[in-house]
Amino acid sequence: MTKDNIVEILLVEDNKHDAELTMLALKDANLFNNVVWLKDGKEALDFLFGNGQYKDRDINHHPKVILLDLKMPKVDGLEVLKEIRAHENTRKIPVVVLTSSKEDKDIIRSYELGVNSFIVKPVDFDQFTQCVKEIGYYWALINQFSA
Known about the structure:
Elements: E1 9-12, H1 16-28, E2 35-38, H2 41-49, E3 65-68, H3 77-86, E4 95-99, H4 104-112, E5 117-120, H5 125-142
Parallel strand pairs: 1-2, 1-3, 3-4, 4-5
Helix pairs in contact: 1-5, 2-3
């Protein structure tokens, strides 16, 4: 596998501001080299399953973790999570929901669908960046992953 094929963190986030803050925090934590930002759930599914503009991507190269927003256009995060867990090739990829939603139904449904962690985005800038750094450190460096 070449370095170009390695995706350690797959960020699925439709909010440009939140995505930029997340990437800034990952960069500050020296975890930015292999991050891919996708802007909606459909693009995430295309990326993971090698469809559309990602038809030439080797779908056997999995990210170490997917940071997944819930409220997105085209395909929402819960549907993305459902599809990830429904396929043998992707079901073991760790998924962390990183969302603004504090709704019990979203938390319950996420865990029913097999999310590894559910985190509500802190509103405070410093807390948000610290949270993202800790998520990145844990899932990209500490956690042992085998797809």
